[in-house]
Amino acid sequence: HVQLVESGGDSVQAGGSLRLSCTASGLTPTTNVMGWFRHAPGKERERIAEIYTDGSASYIYDSVKGRFTISQDSTNNTIYLQMDNLNPTDTAMYHCTAGSALYGLGWADWNTWGQGTQVTVS
Length: 122
Description:
The chain is mostly beta strands. The protein has no helices and eleven strands. Strands 2, 4, 5, 6, 9, 10 and 11 form a seven-stranded mixed β-sheet that branches. A four-stranded antiparallel β-sheet has the order 1-3-8-7, with no helix packed on it. It starts with a strand and ends with a strand. The mean pLDDT is 95.
């Protein structure tokens, strides 16, 4: 079965940067997209970014556009979230996810989630 392991979360000061990693194992042929969500206490889970596993296209959602970048390394089934110019509103648990996007980015059926990595910005 698919497993996702995130890393890279930390406590940083406002204006700082972090890079999150998510390594997948057991990917199935139908898994063609991976992404990042975040969940802050008292808020709804928020979609951040997603990318095809072959790297052919990606999308960054408005709340982090211009500050966050998603990339992938298909040689080791890993995706990355580069986060720059962090601010306290970015404080959250960041979860990696994988799924199938038959109709394009933004329409993925997310079926596997990682445990998450905590990002705290002060």
